[in-house]
Amino acid sequence: MKQYLKNIKQSFKLKKSLNYFVIAAFLIAMIGLDAGGMLGRSTVGILSRIAYCIILAVSLNLVVGFLGELSLGHAGFMCVGAYVGCFCANLLHKSIASDLLVLIIAMLIGGATAAVFGFIVGLPALRLRGDYLAIVTLAFGEIVRNIFNGWDAFGGAMGLGTKPYDAHSLFIVAFIVVLFVLMVCQNLIRSKHGRAITAIRDNEIAAKAMGINVTYYKLFVFTIAAFFAGVAGVIYGHSVSIIRQDYFTYNYSIDYLVMVVLGGMGSMNGSIIAASLITYINVWLQNMLTGDLAGIKQPIYALILIAVVMFNNAPALKPFKERFNLRNLWDLIFRSRRKPEVIKDDAAEWNRIETKIKIDDLLSVEVPPNKANTPDKPQKDGAAAKPKKGGK
Amino acid sequence: MNIVSGLINGLSLGAIYALIALGYTMVYGIARMLNFAHGDIIMVGAYAIYFAVGISDNPVVSILGSIVFAILICTLMGVITEGLAYRPLRGASPLAVLITAIGVSYFLQGIAQMAFGAKALPITLPNLGTIRLFGTSISVGTIITLILGLILMLALTLFVKYTRTGRAMLAVSEDNGAAQLMGVNVNRIIMLTFAIGSALAAFASLFYLFSIPSVDPKLGSMPGIKAFAAAVIGGIGSIPGAVIGGLLLGLIENVCKTVPGLSQYTLAIEFGILILMLLIRPIGILGKKRRVKV
């Protein structure tokens, strides 16, 4: 135990865990403001919405950004979690008085059920890649909606009525869950398992050849991501008074995909920032835009999504990106003594190393160009001339 | 009596799915990408028909005019999305292309919602009447869908098999790089594929409107996904496979809809079949196995 604590102390770095402190500080500030009566009911509602959006975005990032598989059924997992968790909560309210305890149990049950489905959906993921998997996850989301729509025990098409949790304390619970989720995901990614997961993303065959158990890790990531999505669903279910299946459409999954891509695939902090910002902007736009203008949000997000993906991936933009990226800009502004030429040379060097050895380089090994200029030029000429004569 | 009408209705629904699935399967076979926006091309076609159907009182002229207009708009849309969104990403990672395609689909839906509103607009196609066949009355629209759909599929198969351009398409789908070395203009072939797929989608949108006469921005997404399921069931990349998958899915959907207890779970059953298919035989009924080389 002592050794363990010592290890933690040694490996602790402020830079690595800054995000926990930022979120915790934000939470404490909000609790303070709320205690002072400065936050209205709607603001508190937005806070818990931001919290479950962060959980969803971070867990989706685990699948899309780190495992490299596209999941379009994240709303489906959330739907399962919300329905099952809130159904159990409704039952538990009869026997357990404490709302907090009910919420925690509901989150665990909802998360576990979603995790089971995550495992089941993960199974085809072992045989399928990319596009097929995206379709399977999408199909899963639609199947879940379809089944809950027809299942009368869960309210059918009318939706499942829930007992909303007190909004002023829901956001505190939600943010504590965010901290927990972040801790799990971040430590997972930084562990050897996380390295294995990113290795699968970068090259599945190579990862397999290195002895990584691809089956295990794929199922593992799908299950964990589904668990967290289910938990987020339960939090959502407790922030509203009725759960309806048409909330969890496939477009809703895409909203989270937008957050993950904008925040940066494979960046936890990026997902957190993008989820909070986009959720906040959405709420803000909802109040600002009414009627036909409300539709303007979707095409703009779509354009931003396309632009970000294109900027990051288009082969034609690669040289441009290498020249004008944030790091170069940073160097230019803050390290003006480092001349741009030096940076350019570095880039050229890296390009050479990355690309295959060129024919010129191969030739120059055999006949170094500086040797031609050495004093024994005549001798070389003679040597070159000799076989010519012999040939004739 | 119900069996015949159910069969014909199911096959005609299947023909719609097959037409859409052909677009998916061709693009997937040739450009190696899942064009998520293909379903929304149908929506674009439906709006085009909505605006063009009123040009004449004569039912034949009005339908012919609207289908020509829809083909023009859809083809244009397909080619534009290919050129602007997918071409710059050729050679990029499949995930990036897939996300871009989703973005395009999202964009088209959003634009349609902005321009025409989120509400469903009722559309009045000229009434073609019904005919009596084997003792049951079947609408002429259904018959046209089935016959014209089959003719289009046959024409496409012949085109791919026996023309120079079609053979170039096959070559590109077989080996992109080798086809380029043999002098095939790969970019032009891919663009042509998108154009053909979108033109077929225009037909699909007309046939779809025969059965459900209203237009809304999300009209294309569900038939699009189902058609993709059909393409996968039939074996993606294979043209006869898409046709078989489409017809099969249409029949299944119609059977599910008529059985009382199952009707509300139609969607779940269809996608369940897709997932089962992928688990048992991921390459589909007529698909060819592709080996992944390191």
Question: Outline of this structure?
Answer:
The complex is a heterodimer of chains A (392) and B (294). Chain A is mostly helical and 392 residues long.
Strand order of the largest sheet of chain B: 1-4
* Low-confidence regions of chain B: none
SSE-based structural type of chain B: mainly alpha
For the largest beta-sheet of chain B, the strand count, sense and barrel status come to: 2 strands, antiparallel
The CA-CA distance between the termini of chain B, in Å, is: 57 Å
What is the percent of helical residues of chain A? over 70%
Low-confidence stretches of chain A at least 5 residues in length (pLDDT < 50)?
352-359, 380-392
Based on the coordinates given, report the CATH architecture of the largest domain in chain A: Orthogonal Bundle
| Number of E strands of chain A | 2
- Which structural class matches the secondary elements of chain A? mainly alpha
Number of helices in the DSSP assignment of chain A:
18
What kind of oligomer do you see?
A: heterodimer
